[in-house]
Design brief:
globular, Nucleotidyltransferase, domain 5, 24% strand, Rossmann fold, 1224 residues, 9-stranded mixed beta sheet
Length: 1224
């Protein structure tokens, strides 16, 4: 029995789930069931539900009032978060408001006694020191301060008096030593509080993620409990009578009893059912071909993947809240049936805004905007006569085809007028659908290609209300040749809940090298957890025969930060082989390093009986297919596809028999969905599925209508919009690959890297929104190599460069450049490149960011143009000469202190470039080289056009007068800019005449940094979401006098120019445009470490750590400044305090061993300026808390300094604020 209800229909029923149960009972009992009395479900085996209550509350910020209890000194932990701003081109920097209302600092503290990077670990005698205790993993933990429970009780009483009922507790290192959280939680519960405890919810490292997850649980759980209680009141005897019959779907794809359902477990409750549904019903265990789930709804589309097992992730982001909890790996894109269609800046765009249910699309008759649904209706993919008359102000009218058609005619006139084209309304509507399909394909490519798995080697399982209308098109865009649609696909989430298992998970932290654990030891540790999990499920009525266990170890290579959850192989304890194979599949390489165990996990399943549905292979074997007879059709209808109108057959699914085949174009309807069969596809009806197969000899292509225009030089804005998505998708997948395959914290955790694709001459085509200071600079690096090497490179060659003469930014930023070569002509067709900040490349200071360098050689190894890979051979020998030996030949200088990491990260960059090459080649194969090259030029021209229009607007705003700005560095060096705009051309000259000379220090910035600052500001001033590429700089002429601080000589030190001067130049450009007050104007660079050495002719690694620290963002005409974020030229993350401890936005670090420490910063003497009468921002300060024979001293380090800190010394970095805008 299948039917759907409106989620809200207060005129007819109070609660949709209860109403659904009432109708099912009435159907099976054969008698009416009253809405006015509680339902009797004594004859019901179980009620299985999912809900969006938690998700909606999180999106709408409608949760419970929460007080956040955390370790003293960490009150702003979640305000700062990872310090990155959500959208790099948004000057107003809107951050999600915190889920908690109050913070209470508890005076408690523990710290780790040992540290990961210690190459000379010594055994620690825990018994000899009363402050030392064993953590859950056996590691020594030092208890610095126990909580005073009398004081805590007083703090809790104050909260109770203020009306708080819900509490979150998250203390530092509680995943390892939960005792302090436990005693405070016990006290709070005894006082009547609801408490969410971070170590109970997810005992894993990363305090920020764990704290966010605990706050989300405290914020949402009271709503979930009220929802469950209200739902239970609709049944005789209430929840007590329901007992174990009521089960809820959790985010991890398992069911739980209603008593155990909480806010954190409910966030993906609805979508999780769909993943279970298509995994159980659409995956074919005979062919073992993995399945992509495509769940297209009204406002968004969820995509996921199933390959015989369910993929889980343990850290995700929902509504900009980072959550640490097991969830099915579901990616969401803001494109669905209700997504609004936009025509702007010469491009077609879909969403992300949605028309919702009210007012809804144009065809809903409530004055709504044009949407994807309107396009489908206008082109004949939806038939109004098969929809109920529930539209219009009185909800009693049919869908309005005429209104949708009129809206498309009006939009077509606008587009033709602006572009000088002669599009038909049908071409415009189908163009929007093509862009929508490409937009929805992007997350699928990330889920597959981004992990090294070909998208085309999958089956597409479509479901959701709108999935059938787009299934063939999305499959075509992905190169997928088979689509499987369950007959009940619009309610597949509910079906999945019926098939799901009851689950119970237990996870415990572990700290050991995998090689030291015997099979017996592992078996014993797993048995403790499996016994506990089994007891939990047995108490819920499951027998031993019904309970299965999945055993996992969370593993990573030593010295890396990417862990993989590895399932125990059948009949073996060989986790090592499983890990190595999985690592190579996921990341493309393996390492010769020890494997560490971080967590041990058991997932227990109380099994639901299998549905015994025949697989697709079995169903096909059991029937002899035949073409459907025309008499089976319900009617004929007009359908626009492949550039023309067709008279096509329309079938009702209920009228079709298994084994019948329908050749497209055609439409198939059932009670809850519309399925469109494209001309090049054939549908086969099976007992439980509808199978769509791409014809072996295609009758046409989805691209056919558009490709007619590629024979001319004319650029089609539809195709241009599609290629915009495609190029950005390639850059994004390169970035994901680099993050996943790198080993250093700088790249993997802090995300200090950028990936991009370039034209044959080095012009930027697409740059994923990574690090702004790389944006303009990388194209000059590629252009240098393109000119130097010409067409002399071969497939498989890879270049590396970091020198400022070759488009470098500063030496730690190493750029790996790979050509895409036509093997027949040996011409370079494109380039792919990745730039990443390496933690150390040698020089006079650990971390290769010396604050007092005067010459370029003091900053480490330099590459002008080095062929790192020659015909597929990685040249490690010459690389070692450049990175290890040459820097060490200079006085007081060292080779790289992180050689192994450097090599691994360079290989990760090569792998990212190679991914880009393959994806570009796929596009060339799909569209042809001339088409791809034409649309690269079209994308650049589009960006150029937008920037020229922006400059004309600025010209008018300032009455044609030049724009001028001036500022100075902390040392007095002058920054000066005059901008002259030519309105007729829409061009501008950026003249930096009068800027200070090159300095005898390291704040000199290569010319490319100024181009990065300019392109960043121009892109930030454009309000629309334009593609960022070389076209943005085409209208700009930049004049920079040689021998100055932003155009220094080749021997000048530049390590600070990229991170400090770049920020100051950006502020000056923004000041000229009067766009925003100054931001903190610095990256607050902090490095520390110790030297490596050569032992027996081999490099023994030292240690180098580097990070940049957030501060204040300047205010603007319509926004207030922001605190605790990175600004402008950078957007790197900060290391979690449990990996490297910190106090609030004041970064305070105590060192547990002797280290060399350097700080490189600005805005310590010249404050960030205000605008329009606004006050300047606060100055920053760097302080050394030094313990020596003279006592404890606080010493001002100034903006740039190095020192040798001893064990117990601390550094305190107080970052600058942002300037104000406007007088009070």
């Amino acid at each position: 029995m299948v039917f759907k209800l409106l989620s809200l229909d207060p005129r007819n029923y109070k609660d949709a789930p209860t109403e659904g149960i009432r109708r099912v009972l009435a159907h099976y009992r054969g008698a009416p069931v009253s809405r006015d009395e509680p339902l009797d479900i004594s004859d019901v085996e179980s009620v299985r539900m999912g809900t969006t209550v938690a998700t909606n509350a999180l999106l709408e910020l409608q949760g419970e009032r929460v007080a956040f209890l955390t370790t003293k000194g960490f009150r702003d932990l979640l305000v700062i978060g990872n310090q990155a701003r959500p959208h790099i081109f948004d000057l107003s920097i809107h951050k999600l408001q915190n889920l908690y209302e109050r913070v209470v600092e508890i005076d408690e503290r523990v710290t780790m006694e040992e540290f990961l990077e210690n190459p000379e670990k010594q055994p620690i005698d825990i018994e000899s020191d009363p402050e030392l205790v064993k953590g859950l993993t056996g590691e020594p933990v030092r208890v610095l301060k126990k909580p005073d429970l009398e004081v805590v009780a007083s703090q809790l009483s104050d909260l109770k008096a203020e009306g708080f009922k819900s509490r979150t507790i998250c203390f530092i290192h509680s995943y390892l030593y939960p005792n302090h959280e436990n005693v405070v939680a016990e006290l709070a519960r005894s006082m009547g509080f609801d408490v969410s405890v971070s170590s109970e919810l997810q005992p894993t490292i990363k305090m920020v993620s764990r704290g966010n997850a605990a706050n989300a649980d405290a914020y949402l759980s009271p709503l979930i409990r009220r929802y469950v209680r209200d739902f239970g009141s609709g049944f005789k005897g209430g929840l007590d009578a329901i007992a174990s019959k009521l089960l809820f779907m959790q985010s991890d794809g398992g069911l739980c009893l209603w008593q155990n359902f909480s806010g954190l477990l409910a966030i993906l409750s609805g979508p999780a059912g769909g993943v279970i549904g298509f995994g159980k019903s659409c995956y074919d265990p005979e062919t073992k071909m993995p399945v992509i789930g495509f769940d297209m709804g009204g406002t968004s589309t969820d995509v996921s993947r199933f390959s015989g097992t369910y993929d889980h992730v343990f850290e995700t982001e929902t509504a900009e809240v980072t959550l640490q909890t097991p969830q099915l790996d579901i990616n969401t894109v803001a494109a669905g049936g209700g997504s609004i269609l936009h025509w702007k800046i010469g491009l077609f765009a879909i969403g992300p805004d949605s028309a919702g249910a009210h007012p809804g699309p144009v065809c809903y008759r409530k004055g709504g905007p044009l949407t994807v649904t309107d396009a489908n209706l206008f082109l004949g993919r939806l038939r109004p006569e098969y929809f109920p008359s529930i539209f219009g102000p009185k909800e009693n009218e049919p869908l309005d085809y005429d209104a949708a058609a009129a809206a498309f005619h009006s939009l077509t006139e606008k587009i033709n007028s602006e572009e000088g084209k002669s599009f038909t309304p049908e071409e415009i509507a189908s163009g929007f659908l093509r862009v929508a399909n490409e937009s929805m394909s992007r997350p699928i490519r990330s889920l597959t290609e981004g992990r090294g798995i070909r998208t085309s080697d999958h089956v597409l399982a479509t479901f959701g209300g709108a999935g059938g209308q787009h299934s063939c098109d999305v499959a075509e865009a992905l190169g997928v040749e088979r689509v499987v649609i369950n007959r009940i696909s619009p309610i597949l989430s509910a079906y999945g809940m019926a098939l799901a298992d009851l689950t119970h998970e237990i996870q415990r932290p572990k700290a050991a090298e995998l090689s030291t654990l015997s099979d017996t030891q592992l078996g014993e540790e797993f048995k403790v957890l499996t016994d506990e999990a089994t007891a939990t499920l047995a108490a819920q009525g499951f027998s031993d025969e019904q309970i299965e266990h999945e055993l996992f170890l969370n593993l990573r290579y030593k010295g890396t930060n990417s862990s993989l959850m590895i399932r125990k192989p059948e009949g073996s304890w060989n986790f090592t082989r499983q890990f190595v194979e999985h690592h190579e599949e996921e990341f493309g390489f393996v390492l010769d390093r020890d494997i560490l165990v971080e967590d041990i996990r058991v997932r227990a399943l109380g099994k639901t009986p299998d549905s015994n549905v025949a697989s697709v292979s079995q169903a096909l074997k059991s029937v002899e297919t035949r073409l459907v007879e025309s008499s089976r059709r319900a009617s004929t209808t007009k359908l626009y596809t492949s550039g023309k109108w067709h008279e096509v057959d329309l079938f009702k699914l209920e009228d079709l028999a298994p084994a019948e085949r329908i050749v497209g174009p055609a439409i198939i309807l059932d009670q809850t969905q519309t399925i469109m069969i494209q001309p090049s596809w054939t549908a086969t009806v099976l007992p439980r599925h509808l199978l769509l197969d791409k014809n072996a000899i295609s009758q046409g292509s989805v691209h056919e209508a558009v490709e007619l225009t590629t024979e001319t030089d004319e650029v089609d804005p539809i195709q241009l919009s599609v290629f915009g998505h495609r190029f950005m998708s390639i850059a994004e997948q390169m970035g994901r690959s680099l993050q996943m395959t790198s080993v250093s914290v700088n790249i993997k955790e802090r995300l200090d890297y950028s990936c991009a694709i370039f034209s044959p001459t080095g012009g930027l085509v697409a740059n994923a929104p990574h690090i702004p200071c790389h944006l303009g600079a990388m194209s000059y690096a590629v252009a240098y190599q393109a000119e130097r090497w010409g067409n002399s490179l071969r497939p498989g060659d890879v270049l590396v460069s970091n020198h400022l003469a070759a488009g470098g930014s500063h030496l730690p930023d190493v750029t790996v450049i790979s050509p895409v070569i036509d093997e027949e002509t040996n011409e370079v067709l494109f380039w792919t490149a990745s730039r990443a900040h390496h933690a150390d490349i040698g020089g006079i200071s650990a971390g290769s960011m010396p604050p007092h360098s005067k010459e370029i050689w003091q900053e480490g190894a330099s590459f002008l143009s080095f062929k790192l890979v020659d015909g597929g051979r990685f040249d490690e020998e010459d690389l070692a000469e450049i990175m290890l030996k040459k820097p060490a030949s200079y006085p007081g200088s060292s080779g790289t202190r992180t050689w192994n990491d450097n090599v691994s990260d360079l290989k990760a960059q090569i792998a990212a470039n190679q991914k880009g090459i393959r994806l570009i080649q796929d596009s060339i194969k799909e569209y042809g080289l001339p088409t791809v090259q034409k649309y690269i030029l079209g994308i650049q021209n589009n960006a150029e056009k937008v920037v020229r229009n922006l400059l004309r607007q600025v010209h008018d705003q300032f009455g044609g007068l030049p724009l001028e700005a001036e500022d100075q560095m902390d040392d007095g060096s002058k920054l000066k800019l005059k901008i002259r705009i030519n309105r007729e051309e829409g061009s501008a000259v950026f003249d930096f005449a009068g800027i200070s000379r090159e300095m005898y220090g390291n704040l000199n910035a290569p010319r490319t940094i100024t181009f990065s600052a300019i392109i960043y500001v121009l892109r930030s001033l454009v309000k629309e979401d334009i593609p960022l590429n070389q076209g943005c700089l085409a209208p700009i002429n930049v004049i920079i006098p040689s021998g100055t601080i932003i155009s220094p000589s080749l021997g000048a030190a530049t390590v600070g120019g990229n991170v400090e001067t770049s920020q100051r130049v950006t502020d000056v450009v923004l000041r000229a445009f009067q766009a925003a007050a100054a931001s903190q104007g610095t990256c607050n660079n902090l490095t520390f470490g110790y030297e490596g050495e050569m032992v027996d002719g081999k490099a023994k690694s030292g240690f180098g750590y580097y990070e940049t620290i957030a501060g204040g963002a300047g205010a603007g005409p319509s926004w207030e400044g922001q605190s605790g974020v990175h600004v402008h030229m950078t957007n790197t993350r900060i290391t979690d305090p449990e990996s490297l401890e910190r106090d609030g936005c004041v970064r305070e670090i105590e060192f547990r061993r002797d280290l060399h420490v350097s700080v490189l910063s600005e805005r310590r003497t010249v404050p960030p300026y205000g605008l329009a009468g606004g006050e300047p921002g606060a100055l920053g300060e760097n302080v050394w808390v030094r313990h020596d024979e003279y006592g404890t001293r606080e010493i001002n380090l100034g903006g740039k300094n190095s020192c040798e800190m001893k064990k117990g010394d601390r550094i305190i970095i107080r970052s600058p604020g942002g300037g104000a805008y406007g007088a009070l």
